[in-house]
Every structure is written in structure tokens, then in C-alpha cells.
């Protein structure tokens, strides 16, 4: 028996980008407004879960050929690397630095190493949630 | 590192070389490499006689753990030298004997000689150490090497049993002694024996004195096989005979005697010491000789005989200690007991060593040690027979052997007890000579049994495994030397008195001597018609009578039931300890996590409640509380109702949904308490966990899905109410006890200034306290990998099973 999920799949295709945009917004806004790597990561994986619900695991895997365990590892490397980077400048571990630059188009923008750290958190959260859900989903 | 240190450590160093020598010189018996060492050491120690006979001592110190007052200091005085000579002298003879006794083809010689060397070095360390901790270290090394030697034939069950038993008992004593050493350190502040002796007056008046004394005596009594700890010695006879001769007659069992003699100047000022040492000694003396008579194994006879003789030396030391109270040596009236103890110590080592070797020869040449099978060996083994006669007659106290002399002095010492007027000895003291005399009768009796049941009587070739014949000459050398010493010391006892006995007594009773003075020991054969002589005559007459009528009265040994014996008590006790501890563990470790949670939570309640009551910590202070708003009341009600409904929910699905409701209410709380980050996270996480619960619920196996009410349990209810109450009380009190302002003001001020952000929560998470976050994401990673591993591994294992 084959079910017809046209509505679900179409709605998914539309909503997916909105959710992802929202999650990226949450991630980037973290330093100034509610949000951050953790909730941003959860939202992104929420979007992928929606994909999983609308389509099946194989399809999602072909769309997003990501090894989530490696993603987790990369995220951890980001976080630790950001921390260790401070050591190169003769500062204690995990000392952050920031500066404001004037960029074309964007205007006055802050660049902050804490964002790199948050990227680590973001990637780990996606990796972890997706690993868990995918493994349990595949386990039958 | 002086020559003396080298001498003590040399056996341990040689033990390192033994495996190489054993491997590279296969055709030479390993024992030959060993033999020179004790002989050289014996010669080395002999030269110290000229020092000690004038009451001088040699002291060598080597820093070890100086900060703790532990130095490897060695001291040679009369007592230490006597033991060192015994250890090396008999050690050399035993090694020579073992070369002929152990066959290089059948036995693992390298391990045997390594253990033996370990033991020899340890024993030298025990008797020469001046530091109590060093003494204790060597003491345990003797227990340990003795354990290895008893279990040398480890394929035999009896050997392993004997080794374990001796280990348990002697290590129990050793640990007690360590306790004693530490208490003594608390009293005196030093580990040095010489300094402790100098402070003996303070020791006696200290409140810890009795405990120290008893702990030391436990160490000495277990090592020297005193009643009731003697039970390990007969079982230690499973060791090879050279080992029994060396460890369990001449040296190790005398370590306890050494300890008592060494500590006499410290402890002997109290009546407790005199009563305990002398009393236990006499009891051991009697019980050992009484038990020896019923044995049928030659080695068992000798084992109980050793127990009995050790008891005799011990009792003499105890009584000799009483001499300290009279403080005079003018006529040596009370000191005779100490003289007898030292003299008998030497005598016992000589005759018991030779008797063990004789037993080994009989075993070796006939294949059995059972006196019921032996008999009439006199014609086959004349030399061995002669040696046995010398040894046993000396043991029985028959002139002209050395045992006679020490036994006479023993009687003298015991008779003096009744005349003493201290420590209420005048009341019960009379028992000492009586028990001593009857024990001597039994000693005479088993000595006669040993020699006559073995060598005379009917020859029973059908019961023997081999045709008996005289032992090889090499095996006879050692017992011949020992037996000749028995005769030499018997006829010319005074060769020992000034050189060995008097300095040793000087170490045992130092406070009786003025500077440069020494004990004037003179051992004479003929006292005139004294009571002692009649006692000896009585022993011989009654002993002979009993020996002749042996078969008529041995029935009395059967009156005493086996069930009440100490061995039975030991075995039963050991078993009972095992069973009891297993049962205790079974009662509380029942395997249910539920029960363990009950333990944990009740303990939590108990500890917290006790602390709160004890510290009077409960306090209520509402001055700092914000007003309660309408929304909060509503949310609390929703949360409480759903939480309580979970408890009474009939199905799992309801519980999960209610749990979700609680979670979302918490998120709402975060909203109204103005924590947007938390609210967002809580919402998502709650959703995910409810989904996971549903998944788990969906996968629960069919059979166990009994959708019934949670079984109500009074204990659970009580404990959960208790935990809730206690946590609430603590929360209220801690809120009312705020002592410092919060540090949050710093974050509020510096979030933008220093960290370039405006979301304070996030800045704290990634910047101020990013270290925590780093490890939290690590935890998440580990959890994911764990889930992945559990599920994937289970799947592959499932496939394999298919």
C-alpha cells in the first residue's frame, strides 16, 4: 500500500527553508537576542526531522549526505580549537576576542571568536540529535 | 652501607642470583652455591662475641625514611648475636642437609632456595634491627617466605591448607604487632628500640600501656605458636623436612621468643606482662606435650613438642621478667629463669634440629613417618638411631645431655615462682611448678614414644614402601654436628655461659646491670640433693611407668571430643565467617535497583535530617520574597495536578503525556520568569524527550505490557514524601540564609563592555563560562555515540545469532 503524501511533502518543501532560516537567525542572533548555538542547532535538526517525516530515510540521506558522527566530531574540534587558539596569543584557554569592522554592504559588523565557539556547539547539537534519531529510526 | 648491612642483606642479594646459577649450572645441585653464604656469615658473626661478652654493642645506621624516623639501623648485642648465630649456623647445616634430601631431578630447586634465602635474610633482619618498623618489615617477610616454603609442594591440598592457615594466623599477629608498634610510637615518639627501652618508665605509666602490651604479645604468641595460636604449627609440617627443621623448630618460631625477650625491658615492669607471658607459656607447655603423646606421625610429635618447648621458654621469660622487680643480682636467685630460657633456647635449636633431620632420614629411607608402620629400624640405621637417642633424651631431660641441664634450671625457676611475693603470685604461683612438672612427664613420655616405637619393637617390612637402610653420609653430617653439640653443651655447658648466655641476659635484663657489669652465669651439673633432682627422678620414673602402660590409658584422649578442638574451631570459624558474610551480603545486595534506591534515599533523608536537627539549621525568612502573581498560581496548580496524576495514571501513555504537560508548564514558567533562552530550549527538548518516550513505549514487549496501576507501596510513599519534605525544607532554609549578594551584577555590567554581547545568558555560556559548555557538548557527543553503539552493536549481535 502506498500513501499519497503530496500535501505533506509540498508543505515541507516550503516550510523547510523558513525553519532553517529561523534557526540560522537564532544562531547568529545569539549574542544579542535570545538564541544561540544550542537552540539554533535544535531548530536545524528539527527541520531535518520534518524532512525525515515527509520522506524516508534513504531520500533524506541522498539529499543530505552527511555523516552526523563526523559532524559531531567537527563541532567539538571547532569548540576546542577556538579555546586552544587563545593559547597562541599567550592568553588563557578559551579567552575570546572581538572587534568591530566596517564591511561593504553590511556596515558596522562585529566579529567575535565566540561565534566560532558557538558554531562548534551548533554543529555538535545537530550531529547529536540527528545521530540519535537516525540510529533509532533505522533500528526497526 | 656498612659490612653489617651487607651481611643482613646478602641472602636477599644472593636470592637474585639463584635463578641464573640454577639455569647455567644444571649438573651442580643449586644448594652448593648457597652453602658458603650462611657458613661465612656464621664466621662473621662469631667475631662479634669478643665485643658482646664485655657488654658492648655494635650499632650501624643507614638512613631510609629519616623524615618519619625510620632508619635501617642494625644493632648487635648479646641477644641479637645469639639469634644471628643460630640462624646462620643451623642455616648452613640445613642447606647442607637439603642438598642430599631434595632430588635435583624431581624438585624445583631454584624456588626452594630462593624462598630459603628470603627467609634467612628476613630472619637476620628481625633479630638485628633496632628500628621497630624495619623489624616489622622483616617480620612480615618471614611470614611470607614461610608461607611459600610450607606451600612448596603446592600440588598437595594439605600443603596449601597448612600454608594458608599459617599465613592467616601469623599475619593476624603481625598486624596486631604493627598496631602495638604504632601505639608505642605514640607513647615514646621514636621507633628505635634502644631509645624505647631507655624510656620504659614513661611507657609503663601511659594509659595506652595495656593495649600496647597485648598487641605486642599477640604478635609474639602467634609467631611462636603459643596457646591458642599453636594450631598452625602442626599443619606447617607439610613443608619439606629441611624447612620444618629450620623454620619450625630453630628459627622462625623463635621470633616470638625473640620479641618477648627484646621487649622485656620495656614491658616487664607490669604484672600483666609477667602473668600473661608466664601463664600462656605454661599452658602451651602442658597442652603441647599432652597433645604430642597422641600423635602417630613423627613430624606431628615433633611439631607439638616444639609448641611445648616454646611454651617452656616463654614461661621462663615471663618469670624471669619478675626478677626486674627485685632489682638485685647478688645471688641470682630469681634470674635463673632467664638463664634457663636462653640456655634452653640454644639447646632446643640443637636437639630439635637434629631430630627433624632424623625424621627426614627415616621418611626418606622408609617412605613413611607413621609410627604405627615403623619399628625395629635399629639394626638398619644404627647411626640414625644413635642420633635419635641423643636428641630425644636431651629433649626428655636425661643426663648427661644439655636438655637435662636446662630442665633442672627450668624446675628451679618454676619453684622460685611460688616464693615470689609480687603480682599476687603467692596465691596461684604454686600452680606453675605443678603444671611444669606434669608437662615434663608428658615430654618424657613422647620422647620415649618417638625413639622406641620407631627403632625398637617389631620390624614390619610389609608396611614400608622401601627397604630401609642407612642414610648417605652427606645427609648424616648435619644431624651429627647438631647431636655432638648436644653432647658438648651437655658436658661443658660453661663454654656458652660467658660468651653467649651472659651477654644475651644482659640484653634481656639491662636495668639490673651497672656499667661494665655482667651476669655471672655458671651452670653446674650437680646441685646436691635439691628438690629439682627429685622432680627429675619423678619425671623419669612416672614417665617410664606411663610408657609401659601406654595402651591401657590412651583412651583418655578419646574422652576429649574432636569437635571441641581448636582446629575444629578454626575451620568452623573460617567457614562460618564465609557463610555469614555471604548471607549478610545476600540480604542487602538483592539485585533489585528498587531496593538500592530505597537505601540511597533513606540514607539521604537520614543524613540531611540529622544534620538539620543537629545544627538547628531550619530557618524561615519571608522578607526577601517577591509577591505571588496570578499566573504563577495557575501554573503551579497545573503542574501539581499533572505530577500527582502521573502517580495514579493507569496507563503508560497517560503518564507520558502528563509528563509532557509538566515539561511544557516548566517552559511557561521560564517565560513568565523572563528566561527566553531557557524557554526555547525547554520546549524543544521536552518535545524530543516525549517523542523518545513514546518510541520506547511503542517498543515495549507485548508480554509485560500490564497496564495496571502502579502498585502502591507504603515504604515508597514514605520515602518519597520524606525526600520531598527534606529538599523543600533545605530550599526554604537556604533561601532564608543568604549571606552574600549575588555575583550577577558583574555580568550585567560587563556583558557588553568586556564580551561584546548583549544576550547575557549566551555570553555566560560561550564566553565567561565557556569551559562548562565545551564539556556539555562533549557529554552530548558521548551520549550520541553511546546510543549509536548500543543499537548498532545489538543489531550485529542479533545477526550473528541468527
Automatic annotation (TrEMBL), chain A:
Give the location in the cell: Cell membrane
How the protein sits in the membrane?
Multi-pass membrane protein
Q: Where is the Na+/H+ antiporter MnhB subunit-related protein domain?
A: 7-131
Q: Tell me where the transmembrane regions lie.
A: 12-32, 38-56, 68-89, 109-133
The record's section on InterPro entries has: CPA3_antiporter_subunitB, MnhB
Keyword field: Cell membrane, Membrane, Transmembrane, Transmembrane helix
GO CC annotations on file: plasma membrane
Instruction: Say which family it is in.
Output: Belongs to the CPA3 antiporters (TC 2.A.63) subunit B family.
Xref: NCBIfam families = PRK12573.1 (NF009223)
Query: What PANTHER family does the entry give?
Result: NA(+)/H(+) ANTIPORTER SUBUNIT B, NA(+)_H(+) ANTIPORTER SUBUNIT B
Name its species. Mesobacillus subterraneus
Name of the protein: Na(+)/H(+) antiporter subunit B
User: Lineage, please?
Assistant: Bacteria, Bacillati, Bacillota, Bacilli, Bacillales
**What's the main place this protein lives?**
membrane
Amino acid at each position: 500500500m502506498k500513501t499519497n503524501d503530496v500535501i505533506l511533502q509540498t508543505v515541507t518543501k516550503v516550510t523547510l527553508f523558513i525553519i532553517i532560516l529561523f534557526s540560522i537567525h537564532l544562531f547568529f542572533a545569539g549574542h544579542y537576542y535570545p538564541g544561540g548555538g544550542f537552540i539554533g542547532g535544535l531548530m536545524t535538526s528539527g527541520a531535518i526531522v520534518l524532512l525525515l517525516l515527509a520522506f524516508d530515510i534513504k531520500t533524506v540521506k541522498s539529499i543530505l549526505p552527511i555523516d552526523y558522527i563526523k559532524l559531531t566530531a567537527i563541532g567539538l574540534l571547532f569548540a576546542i580549537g577556538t579555546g586552544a587558539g587563545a593559547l597562541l596569543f599567550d592568553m588563557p584557554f578559551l579567552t575570546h576576542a572581538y572587534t568591530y569592522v566596517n564591511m561593504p554592504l553590511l556596515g558596522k559588523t562585529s566579529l567575535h571568536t565566540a561565534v566560532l565557539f558557538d558554531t562548534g556547539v551548533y554543529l555538535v547539537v545537530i550531529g547529536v540529535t540527528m545521530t540519535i534519531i537516525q540510529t533509532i529510526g533505522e533500528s526497526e | 652501607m656498612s659490612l653489617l648491612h651487607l651481611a643482613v642483606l646478602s641472602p636477599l642479594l644472593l636470592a637474585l642470583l639463584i635463578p641464573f646459577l640454577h639455569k647455567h649450572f644444571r649438573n651442580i645441585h643449586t644448594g652448593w652455591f648457597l652453602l658458603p653464604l650462611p657458613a661465612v656469615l656464621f664466621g662473621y658473626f662469631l667475631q662479634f662475641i669478643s665485643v658482646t661478652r664485655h657488654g658492648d654493642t655494635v650499632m650501624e645506621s643507614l638512613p631510609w625514611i629519616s623524615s618519619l624516623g625510620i632508619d635501617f639501623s642494625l644493632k648487635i648485642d648479646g641477644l641479637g648475636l645469639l639469634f644471628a648465630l643460630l640462624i646462620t649456623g643451623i642455616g648452613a647445616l640445613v642447606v647442607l642437609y637439603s642438598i642430599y634430601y631434595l632430588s635435583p631431578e624431581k624438585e624445583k630447586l631454584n624456588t626452594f632456595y630462593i624462598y630459603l634465602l628470603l627467609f634467612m635474610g628476613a630472619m637476620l633482619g628481625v633479630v638485628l634491627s633496632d628500628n621497630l618498623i624495619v623489624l616489622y618489615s622483616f617480620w612480615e617477610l618471614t611470614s611470607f617466605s614461610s608461607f611459600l616454603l610450607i606451600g612448596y609442594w603446592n600440588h598437595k591440598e594439605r600443603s596449601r591448607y597448612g600454608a594458608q592457615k599459617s599465613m592467616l594466623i601469623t599475619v593476624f599477629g603481625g598486624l596486631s604487632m604493627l598496631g602495638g608498634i604504632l601505639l608505642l610510637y605514640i607513647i615514646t615518639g621514636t621507633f628505635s628500640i634502644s631509645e624505647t627501652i631507655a624510656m620504659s618508665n614513661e611507657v609503663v605509666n601511659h594509659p595506652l600501656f595495656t593495649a600496647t602490651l597485648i598487641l605486642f604479645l599477640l604478635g609474639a604468641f602467634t609467631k611462636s605458636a603459643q596457646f591458642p595460636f599453636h594450631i598452625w604449627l602442626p599443619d606447617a609440617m607439610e613443608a619439606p623436612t629441611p624447612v620444618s627443621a629450620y623454620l619450625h623448630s630453630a628459627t622462625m618460631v623463635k621470633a616470638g621468643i625473640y620479641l618477648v625477650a627484646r621487649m622485656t625491658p620495656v614491658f616487664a615492669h607490669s604484672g600483666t606482662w609477667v602473668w600473661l607471658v608466664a601463664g600462656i607459656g605454661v599452658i602451651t607447655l602442658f597442652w603441647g606435650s599432652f597433645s604430642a603423646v597422641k600423635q602417630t606421625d613423627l613430624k606431628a610429635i615433633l611439631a607439638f613438642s616444639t609448641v611445648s618447648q616454646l611454651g617452656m621458654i616463654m614461661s621462663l621469660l615471663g618469670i624471669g621478667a619478675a626478677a626486674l622487680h627485685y632489682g638485685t643480682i647478688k645471688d641470682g636467685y630469681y634470674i635463673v629463669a632467664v638463664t634457663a630460657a636462653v640456655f634452653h633456647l640454644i639447646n632446643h635449636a640443637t636437639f630439635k634440629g637434629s631430630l627433624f633431620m632424623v625424621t627426614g632420614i627415616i621418611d626418606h629411607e622408609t617412605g613413611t613417618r607413621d609410627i604405627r608402620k615403623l619399628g625395629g629400624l635399629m639394626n638398619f640405621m644404627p647411626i640414625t638411631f644413635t642420633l635419635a637417642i641423643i636428641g630425644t633424651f636431651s629433649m626428655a631431660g636425661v643426663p648427661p645431655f644439655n636438655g637435662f641441664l636446662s630442665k633442672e634450671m627450668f624446675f628451679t625457676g618454676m619453684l622460685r615462682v611460688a616464693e615470689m611475693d609480687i603480682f599476687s603470685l603467692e596465691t596461684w604461683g604454686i600452680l606453675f611448678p605443678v603444671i611444669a612438672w606434669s608437662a615434663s612427664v608428658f615430654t618424657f613420655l613422647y620422647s620415649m614414644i618417638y625413639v622406641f616405637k620407631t627403632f625398637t619393637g617389631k620390624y614390619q617390612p610389609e608396611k614400608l614402601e622401601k627397604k630401609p637402610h642407612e642414610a648417605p653420609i652427606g645427609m648424616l653430617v648435619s644431624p651429627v654436628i647438631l647431636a655432638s653439640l648436644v653432647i658438648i653443651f651437655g658436658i661443658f655447658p660453661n663454654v656458652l655461659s660467658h660468651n653467649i648466655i651472659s651477654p644475651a641476659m644482659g640484653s634481656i635484663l639491662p636495668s639490673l646491670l651497672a656499667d661494665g657489669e655482667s651476669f655471672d652465669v655458671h651452670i653446674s651439673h650437680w646441685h646436691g640433693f635439691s628438690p629439682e633432682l627429685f622432680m627429675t627422678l619423678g619425671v623419669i620414673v612416672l614417665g617410664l611407668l606411663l610408657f609401659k602402660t601406654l595402651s591401657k590409658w590412651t583412651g583418655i584422649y578419646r574422652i576429649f571430643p574432636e569437635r571441641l578442638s581448636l582446629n575444629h574451631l578454626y575451620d568452623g570459624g573460617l567457614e562460618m565467617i564465609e557463610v555469614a558474610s555471604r548471607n549478610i551480603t545476600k540480604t542487602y545486595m538483592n539485585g533489585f535497583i528498587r531496593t538500592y534506591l530505597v537505601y540511597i534515599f533513606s540514607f539521604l533523608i537520614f543524613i540531611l535530617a540529622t544534620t538539620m536537627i543537629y545544627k538547628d539549621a531550619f530557618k524561615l525568612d519571608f522578607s526577601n520574597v517577591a509577591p505571588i502573581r496570578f499566573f504563577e498560581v495557575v501554573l503551579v496548580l497545573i503542574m501539581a495536578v499533572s505530577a500527582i496524576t502521573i502517580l495514579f495514571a493507569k496507563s503508560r501513555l497517560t503518564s507520558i503525556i502528563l509528563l509532557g504537560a509538566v515539561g511544557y508548564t516548566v517552559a511557561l514558567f521560564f517565560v513568565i520568569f523572563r528566561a527566553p533562552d531557557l524557554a526555547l530550549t525547554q520546549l524543544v527538548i521536552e518535545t524530543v524527550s516525549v517523542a523518545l518516550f513514546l518510541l520506547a513505549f511503542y517498543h515495549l514487549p507485548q508480554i509485560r505490557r500490564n497496564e495496571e496501576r502502579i502498585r502502591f507501596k507504603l515504604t515508597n510513599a514514605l520515602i518519597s514524601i520524606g525526600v520531598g519534605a527534606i529538599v523543600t525544607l533545605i530550599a526554604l532554609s537556604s533561601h532564608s540564609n543568604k549571606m552574600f549578594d549575588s555575583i550577577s551584577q558583574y555580568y550585567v555590567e560587563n556583558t557588553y563592555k568586556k564580551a561584546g554581547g548583549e544576550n547575557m545568558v549566551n555570553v555566560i555560556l560561550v564566553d565567561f563560562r565557556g569551559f562548562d559548555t565545551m564539556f556539555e557538548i562533549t557529554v552530548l557527543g558521548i551520549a550520541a555515540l553511546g546510543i549509536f553503539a548500543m543499537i548498532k552493536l545489538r543489531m550485529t549481535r542479533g545477526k550473528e545469532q541468527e
